[in-house]
């Protein structure tokens, strides 16, 4: 196998912004990639299906509209914000960055984390950063140190957990289905909360021959997040939905870039399913938090809208491997394989979807005036420095699934 030198950049796409006719109705056009070019990258759905719309939660045309509507940010009143934060998965980091940005802007913040403060999960980042200053203090201020409040408990008993505290805004960054989120929504409505925000997922979009996914595209009717989005739109007059994809950032507790670093620093081949040219979107958590903060400070503009909470650039799977190698200052050997031929589950063998998974933040740019700052070459350098600082590069690891793949392909691995 040939060894590839670290590249200077990754394959990326960007698109111009479009005008939206109404702030409360998401309708946009999309950037099309030709089917001839996509056919050699991966297999996509051969057809599109249309699901019915309903008044409180419209599914809109993707045709561009001409309008002079613009939103100008102004000094926002200080808000009392409650963040209901998940205790697992990659989304946990969103609540931390959001709280930090809100506090920096002068808002009052309380974070309710699902579970108990004494649990093992609370001893790991990002949760360990909610209270005492630890090894991460050189990177970011602690939530409590910045004036925030932390709470642990069950979202199903939110009224008891927060006592008589009053809030202007609630963000649910925990539930993935209506059973989990309904108690939060119902309590917030009864408590007089003015604005409700929800972290959904760009994974709810249906496969399509036309990329990238934009707000208003058809979603999977049976996806748990969809039911939550609809319910929130029915209950609250001021609401906004955010659909993130993959994210990076200090304190992330779900492997993303670390998966690549683990193999690169140990001089192991990096096995990538398919052609490696599949497009995906990786966003720094600070961009997610800045988008959320704009919604809090511009509630009238954000109200009734869905926002793809993503970077405005895509990267190929091969490009991600090369950028991680560049950040580490090391070469990388990429090996491609067919999961079915090898007999492995790609979901267990690789941290990303084995397909094009790329959305665009058009609504946030047009409606909120949001601008992304994710810079993968630079952000990955910072992440690699942290990777080495915590000693993960020296940690003993097993690569059993990798070894099965490499053995099937007769690719040697250095002892």
UniProtKB/TrEMBL annotation:
<dbReference type="InterPro" id="IPR036291">
    <property type="entry name" value="NAD(P)-bd_dom_sf"/>
</dbReference>
<dbReference type="GO" id="GO:0003978">
    <property type="term" value="F:UDP-glucose 4-epimerase activity"/>
</dbReference>
<dbReference type="Pfam" id="PF01370">
    <property type="entry name" value="Epimerase"/>
</dbReference>
<dbReference type="GO" id="GO:0005829">
    <property type="term" value="C:cytosol"/>
</dbReference>
<dbReference type="GO" id="GO:0005996">
    <property type="term" value="P:monosaccharide metabolic process"/>
</dbReference>
<feature type="domain" description="NAD-dependent epimerase/dehydratase">
    <location>
        <begin position="178"/>
        <end position="309"/>
    </location>
</feature>
<dbReference type="InterPro" id="IPR001509">
    <property type="entry name" value="Epimerase_deHydtase"/>
</dbReference>
<protein>
    <recommendedName>
        <fullName>NAD-dependent epimerase/dehydratase domain-containing protein</fullName>
    </recommendedName>
</protein>
């Amino acid at each position: 196998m040939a060894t590839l030198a670290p590249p200077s950049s990754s394959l990326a796409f960007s698109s111009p912004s479009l005008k939206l006719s109404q702030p409360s109705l998401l309708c946009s056009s999309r950037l099309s990639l030709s089917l001839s070019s996509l056919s050699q990258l991966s297999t996509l759905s051969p057809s599109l299906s249309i699901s019915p719309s309903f008044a409180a939660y419209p599914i809109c045309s993707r045709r561009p509209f001409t309008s002079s509507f613009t939103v100008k940010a102004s000094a926002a009143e200080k808000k009392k914000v409650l963040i209901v934060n998940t205790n697992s998965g990659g989304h946990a980091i969103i609540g931390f960055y959001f709280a930090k940005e809100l506090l920096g802007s002068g808002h009052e913040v309380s974070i309710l984390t699902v579970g108990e403060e004494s649990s093992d999960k609370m001893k790991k980042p990002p949760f360990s950063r909610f209270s005492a200053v630890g090894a991460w203090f050189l990177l970011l201020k602690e939530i409590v140190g910045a004036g925030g409040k932390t709470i642990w408990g069950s979202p199903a008993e939110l009224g008891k957990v927060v006592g008589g505290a009053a809030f202007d805004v609630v963000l649910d960054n925990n539930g993935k289905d209506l059973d989990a989120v309904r108690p939060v929504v119902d309590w917030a409505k009864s408590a007089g909360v003015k604005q409700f925000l929800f972290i959904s997922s760009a994974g709810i979009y249906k496969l399509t021959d036309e990329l990238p996914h934009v707000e208003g595209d058809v979603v999977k009717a049976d996806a748990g997040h969809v039911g939550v989005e609809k319910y929130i739109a029915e209950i609250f007059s001021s609401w906004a939905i955010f659909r993130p994809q993959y994210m990076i950032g200090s304190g992330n507790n779900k492997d993303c870039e670390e998966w690549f670093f683990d193999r690169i620093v140990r001089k192991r081949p990096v096995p990538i399913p398919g052609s490696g040219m599949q497009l995906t979107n990786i966003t720094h958590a600070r961009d997610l938090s800045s988008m959320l903060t704009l919604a809090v400070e511009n509630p009238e503009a954000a109200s009734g809208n869905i926002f793809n909470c993503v970077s405005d650039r895509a990267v190929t799977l091969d490009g991600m491997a090369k950028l991680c190698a560049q950040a580490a200052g090391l070469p990388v050997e990429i090996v491609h394989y067919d999961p079915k031929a090898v007999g492995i589950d790609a979901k267990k063998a690789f941290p990303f979807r084995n397909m094009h998974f790329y959305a665009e933040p058009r609504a946030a740019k047009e409606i909120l005036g949001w601008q992304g700052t994710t810079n993968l070459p630079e952000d990955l350098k910072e992440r690699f420095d942290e990777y080495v600082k915590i000693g993960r590069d020296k940690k003993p690891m097993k690569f059993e699934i990798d070894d099965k793949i490499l053995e099937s392909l007769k690719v040697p691995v250095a002892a």
